[in-house]
Amino acid sequence: MSGGMTPDRDEHVLADVKAPLREMVFPFLEMIVVTGVLWIIIGWFDAADAGRYGVGPLHLPPEWRNGFVLLWAVLVLWRFLLPLLRKRRRRMIVTDRRIIFRGDGFRARPRTLSMSAVTWAEKERGLLAVYLRDSDVPVCYRGLPKVRKIARIINDPHL
């Protein structure tokens, strides 16, 4: 078996899902607000440099404007792009022999469950609970789309 997120040649992929984009709604809205506020301030600096709109007496160095542009770029990277890339790394592959799951983050490593060890899977409060033969506590996976369909595939892989 391969150690990464790619199934072996003799495995049949039944489901392959990534984290849904709906988890990025609030970071996206935050990015819109940050962009609007900071670019209003940057426009105010531009108008002050041109002496328009009655803000002429305030003469600030152009480095301040550049500092706000840099602040905007850092905030967009930190509050939107990095969380987007981190969340989109979450992935689950269900094959006829195993379940491969990788969590959020750049350092997350794939974890594998053998299908022979799985007794049952179901949706519980929005997450996928996979029950194993040798454990009373299920393995739970959070933040996956189509949880009910994945549970059906795990329970009956011949669908």
UniProtKB/TrEMBL annotation:
* Spans through the membrane: 24-44, 64-82
Q: What keywords is this UniProt entry annotated with?
A: Membrane, Transmembrane, Transmembrane helix
Name of the protein this chain belongs to: PH domain-containing protein
Q: Name the species this protein comes from.
A: Corynebacterium pygosceleis
